[in-house]
Amino acid sequence: RSLAQQWMLCSQMTDLIFTERELVQSLKEYIEAEEMKLEAVKSWANKLDMLTHASTSDPEGFLAHPVNAYKLMKRLNTEWSELESLVLQDPSDGFISNMSVHRQYFPDEEDEKGAAKALMRLQDTYKLDSESFSKGKLPGVRYNAELTVDDCFDMGKLAYNEIDYYHSVLWMQQALRQMDLGEDAKTAKADILDYLSYSVYQMGDLPRAIELTRRLVAIDPSHQRAGANLHYFEQLLSKELRARGRSQQEPADERPIQLDTYERPKDYLPEREVYEALCRGEGVKMTQKRRSRLFCRYQDGNRSPRLLLKPMKEEDEWDSPHIVRFLEALSDEEIEKIKELAKPNLARATVRDPKTGVLTVAHYRVSKSAWLEGEDDPVIARVNQRIEDITGLSVDTAELLQVANYGVGGQYEPHYDFSRKDEPDAFKSLGTGNRVATFLNYMSDVEAGGATVFPDIGAAIWPRKGTAVFWYNLFKSGEGDYRTRHAACPVLVGSKWVSNKWIHERGQEFRRPCGLTEVD
Asked: Does the keyword section mention Cytoplasm (predicted)?
């Protein structure tokens, strides 16, 4: 079972923390056993060193004593064999056995790659330079953690192998910076310059690529590729200069490479910049006029018997589309019970394939989830009933309560909860129509990151433990409200727990009657 791209999911990561602690204890016990063995061997060696020094100085006189003759026979026949057995003892057996038991749960190469990509994702989303990560300068952190030259080099090499020269440059530059400041490393400076110079060339910066390659040649004149690369880069630059009618190049930019030195390549997500800005709290379109239209109220679910004596506190988060937040939607005890029920069943979160309707994993959703039924525990049944009371919508046709855990780097890129017209089979197997509404419980606070953002309308909603947000995905006509395209921002520091209830059309005919216009 691979944990690929799931390293950042907190529930299993905590298990690995305790596994590593157990292995450290096992390693210390092995070291102690080895030290005891060596002490016994050293004691033997010292004793026999003194004895043989005396016996070899006068062999005949030594053996003239019958006790010495007997003890020589005894030592060679018995005691040396005992010493041989002692030396052959392998105290590592316990440690190796413990390693073998736990190795099946260790992350593999894909997991390490996923971890590195998560750091790069955070770096991009929150505009953090490589030094911020390397020196552990992150908001809200309780424990300091730093990256070494070798760590930075490995990050850059992974990006390089993925043909991601943008991130390769950032991390190789950081490795070089730390090495130039005197930090010791196993990695050779020539290797860093080799990867960095070629990555810079791939980013289109020939003058800097030439300058870095010259540094490489100066360090290692016999380097296999450096001389040829330097000649090639210089020829390319000369050709460019001639094409521009210039005779000599400008000196290479001596400023350190930063996040904004090179433009990050565009990818498959058209609203990437807007989405990431909202995750940072930038570009939120909360004007004073809009704020004046937001109110708070007590919600009794149209006089639901369960809410009459203790109505729900409701706050407007956004006016159009109408997004509300319910306070004290879950108690701490309910949250812990839900997490307890979900943890044994957590698996890589899936999305419904729009063509087939089949649940499948996707690179743009990095979290773990579990599905809980009302029959699993009275708490789940109570939460389902509460959602029905608050919203006035039937949950009989809703999907099971989905519990999701987003660890550091965990995210769900912009998506729609409802199926579009070109996805007619998305929920066909359920037989309950489209997703009419979303009820999202926040089950943890998040130290940094983890907002729910709506790029099309410029809204950002931040997690608050025990609260829930609610919005309609469809107009009363049944048409999809495309403004509800939303995303779960990457968690920068902490762990984010949520539970989702997707409410479907069937059963709402009299609770939310159809509207007369398409966008009513």
From this structure: no
How would you classify residue 191: left for phi > 0, otherwise alpha for psi between -120 and 50, otherwise beta?
alpha
Q: Are strands 351-352 and 296-299 parallel, antiparallel or unpaired?
A: unpaired
Are 115 and 151 a contacting pair, CB within 8 Å? no
109-244 and 287-504, same CATH topology: no
CA 342, 451, 446, 411 torsion: positive or negative? Answer: positive
- Output the CA–CA distances (angstroms, integers) from residue 180 to 213, 251, 395, 424, in the order listed: 16, 21, 62, 59
pLDDT in tens, 334-387: 999 999 999 988 886 665 565 556 656 556 556 788 999 999 999 999 999 999
Residue whose pair of structure tokens reads 């912009």 in the numeric block: 414
Assigned fold of 109-244: 1.25.40
The Cα–Cα gap between 491 and 284 comes to 19
* CB contact burial 256-267 (16+ within 10 A = b; e otherwise): ebeeebbeeeee
Distance CA 189, CA 513 (A): 69
Helix (H) or strand (E) holding 486: strand 486-488
Pairing status of strand 448-449 against strand 435-442:
unpaired
Superfamily of domain 287-504: q2cbj1_9rhob like domain (2.60.120.620)
pTM score, whole prediction: 0.82
- Residue 405's beta-bridge partner residues? 368, 497
pLDDT for residue 96: 85
User: Tokens at residue 12, please?
Assistant: 């299993």
Per domain, the residue ranges of the chain are 10-104, 109-244, 287-504
The one-character DSSP state at 481 is: -
- Angle 332-342/378-391 helices, nearest 10 degrees? 120
Closest CA to 393 of 359, 423, 432: 432
Contact 516, 478 (CB under 8 A): no
